[in-house]
Amino acid sequence: MTVRPRTSLKKIHLAAHFPGVNNTTVWADPRSKSQIDFSSFEHLARTAERGLFDFFFLAEGLRLREHKGRIHDLDVVGRPESLTVLNALAAVTEHLGLAATVSATFNEPYELARRLATLDHLSGGRAAWNVVTSSDAFTGENFRRGGFLDRADRYTRAAEFVATARQLWDSWTPDGVPRPFAHRGEHFDIAGEFTLPRSPQGHPVVIQAGDSDEGREFAAATADVVFTRHGSLAAGRSFYADVKRRLAKYGRNPGDLKIMPGVTVVLGDTAAEAQDRAAEIRRQQVSPQNAILALEQIWGVDLSSYDPDGPLPEIDPVADSGITQGRTRRGDTVAIAEKWRALSKEKGLSIRQTVIEAGARQSFIGTPEAVAAELDEFVQKDAADGFIVQPVITPSGLDEFVDRVVPLLQERGVFRTEYQGATLRSHLGLPDPVWRG
């Protein structure tokens, strides 16, 4: 049955996240290929462009994760530098936006602004910067400054970093005249001349991820796109309303900031088949070894003697043990342990089953028609402006979504049938930045 396009509906924005070092990617699947070979990046980027996606998104890792003092061998080892990969992808794509995750803690404004402006020029205005922060001394050991940055200072440095980068991008007039720049602030004191004229979209698009109150405020003041994890319709609507209402304080309109949760999608010809596939993916994601690892992250002690098919430990967690390094903290581990124990007791689950149940990550599961309808509902009910799709297989995990879901979104009249503009800002419907010379 063909769904007739409807009028006056919000359009859905889509981006593709390259699968990487996380507990979503299924590296044991025989279809999984290299996360370093350029062919993998090219395949996913070309698929995203074939699907008319807004942008391609790369995460970043500045140090390999460790567990119990050793490099975690259940992770993928090897993480190329994002901007280098995206500059190469600019040559094999024509419309697709190219987003790099780069730390505002372990970089400097002049150097990074220049690298991002270079990508924006080479790609014809398709560059984006996902701003991340860190107070992690473990990662900082790879840098001269080490872990000097207090956690409370990470957003103040990031805000000044973005403002300084924009000052550098604005140091050339729109008609191509270079002008000296000077910035003196709490974190940066620089002056000189920028080497590149204003790029095709004025400034690269700025993306931000963070759910804390300070993160939401930073996004409202600074970002063009917010990458969030809110999965349910109710949670999404609450986050959406909260962040959008903050924009007016900074003289911004609701459309100036796009909210795009990261989602995974599992498809099947029937609802039952999709649920079966989703369950199998979770079993692949949470192997017996990964189940014990997840447990050790919460309990903070060596649990290698425990049977993954046995019950949860009766001992209490050890807070802030540092057993795992380089991975985002899960929050209040004591509260999480109590929640897991209650879940295990209620459903009679083993360690592995509890980790699978508690950590389920698939956001949309069903037939292509059902998934398209649900994605549409999230956007029309103001739970999101679009989605960053996170495949579970590298690099072919996006193929089925593009082939089976995108055409249905187009039939519903909520997704483009061709690219209209040349820049990423035009894809996202963002206003051009005002030159502040």
Can you walk me through this structure?
With 437 residues, this protein is α/β, with parallel strands linked by helices. It folds into two domains: 13-268 and 362-428, TIM Barrel (Alpha-Beta Barrel); 287-358, no CATH class. The protein contains 15 helices and 15 strands. It has helices at 38-50, 82-90, 109-123, 137-140, 154-169, 213-222, 233-246, 271-285, 288-299, 333-347, 351-358, 368-380, 399-404, 406-411, 424-428; strands at 13-17, 55-58, 66-67, 70-71, 97-103, 127-132, 181-184, 189-192, 205-209, 225-228, 258-263, 265-267, 324-325, 364-366, 386-389. The strands form four sheets. It has an eight-stranded parallel barrel with strand order 1-2-5-6-9-10-11-15, surrounded by five helices. Strand 7 and strand 8 form a beta hairpin. The protein starts with 12 loop residues before the first strand and ends in a 9-residue tail after the last helix.
